[in-house]
Queue: 2 jobs
Job 1
Amino acid sequence: MAEKAIGIFDSGLGGLTCVRRIEKLLPGQKIVFFGDTGRLPYGGRSKDTIIRYTTQDLNFLKTFDLKLIVAACGTVSTMALDEIKKASGIPLLGVVEPSVKQAVSATKTKRIGVIGTAATISSGAYERHINALMSDAEVFSKACPLFVPLVENGHYRSDDAVVMAIVEEYLSELKANNIDTLILGCTHYPLLRQAIEKFFGPDVTLIDSGAACANEVENVLTKMGISPQEGSEGGCRFFVSDRTGDFASLASIFLGRAVDDSDVGLVDIYSY
Ligand code: DGL
């Protein structure tokens, strides 16, 4: 029987940080990735719009034969996942629970920072999940709306003065609050890891929400007995809703490997 794929989607290309980790953990796993690059960012939009967009993203992915769908997007995971879960018909995972589990086991001082899009932070979802697992944890949250456009436009390096100025502007408050663990609650943010590490120094543990979610994918597939069989051939098919022209150069940064322009397909997402 042909191996079923996993569907992974994001508002843009940040979800590729999750794909990157799955390719490492489960090299035999087929993946279909959709990035809604034509409507990025989701993080400044209303809940209704995010749910409508997410429903179309799922409808597109459901045209493939999938065994699991991953919302590799902090904004979708915090604003739309509960609403769309029932209608999905396919098991659906988000990034919140896996990152919270890692943060709670990493913290020593129980002072945890969370950064994400405006929508993610206003949802309060990370705080709720952290306090459900660790009721005496103190959570300090900060929306960082400029991080996604920075990263999507290729600005992420720690020697980039613009990047470091914005990192300082957003994260000084969290530094003053003496957090020892920081959840990168948006799947674009792992690209800024070096810049954020440079700002905080070595005493703050960074939790990569895309990678944490990939670990959870591996656990769930094992539990459900649907891990890829030995010797099966993996590979990722990529689809976006706009900007196929610069897909390869940006995707290769997120994935840490070469990607070819011909690897990506264009989707008219409004028709789903
Ligand atoms: N990767 C998305 C997230 O994790 C990007 C945010 C956005 O679309 O605003 O939230």
Job 2
Amino acid sequence: VKNPIVAKWSERIEHALKEYFSKKDPSCEPLDRAMAYSVLAGGKRIRPLLTFMVYKSINEKNNPTDIIEMTLAIELLHTYSLIHDDLPSMDDDDLRRGKPTNHMVFGEAIAILAGDALHSEAFEILIKTGPKQITAEKRICILGEFCDAIGHRGMVAGQVMDLGAEDQEIDIDHLQLLHRRKTGALIRFSARLGAHLADATESQFSAITAYSEELGLLFQVVDDLLDREASVEELGKTPGKDMEQGKSTFPKLIGMEESRCLADQLYQKAILHIQNSNLNTHLLEELALFVRERAY
Ligand code: IPE
Ligand code: IPE
Ligand code: MG
Ligand code: MG
Ligand code: MG
């Protein structure tokens, strides 16, 4: 059962995404359709939710409506990464968000290009939308952090490490670094975007950053666990793929039971970072619990 706060806000994100993709340009068919297909296929919308919750945790009066369009950038970027992650040359998956993957429907070339276009669109949104009072200086700072999170020091580096670690024996530090880059970096950015937009103090920034780093690792540990334990109906993707492809995952390295313990520890650590931090922790705690207990 979905947490009611998470449910309410993800509905608003869902609505904004639908609106964003309501217009299609027939001159480059099927590009817009392919982009919309994967974005609107569902998904937990955890990353924009995190931005919302950080934004609110800094000031209860902050209205997420002011930043909703900007948070869509993260979801588009994330969706590009999923489309490419599923390609035959990468994880070769045919099911995503409960539907055939992008390349299964539109073919590999369009899937690659739809991913490319979503990537650019994310930058466009970060450059052109957001609260009126945002300064150019702050926007450049946000964009710089975004590049760090998604590029060759962040998510892409993580994806390369993930492919390189197939059928390899790697140690726990290597696996942690891989996960922190592949999944953690964008989650960390999502949190820090909320902090930037809410004009967080330095101490709030450090609490939120530390929280999001634990949350990001937690997120991927749970993703690894779910690949082993969840059903295809729950997951909306094919379970058992990690083992099949010899992926280096936490369950492979330390076993299921210890991976669950690690997830519990990461959840506790995330919460600890925001306690006594001059933040309204309620929503951030809810979100961490959701990430720990999610079944998909
Ligand atoms: C899946 O991300 C890929 C990872 C980074 C682990 P999500 O679990 O957030 O996927 P959606 O967006 O809900 O489909
Ligand atoms: C995907 O990680 C991470 C990115 C897309 C950056 P996984 O390969 O574990 O994600 P799933 O399990 O296919 O969703
Ligand atoms: Mg992958
Ligand atoms: Mg994958
Ligand atoms: Mg996975």
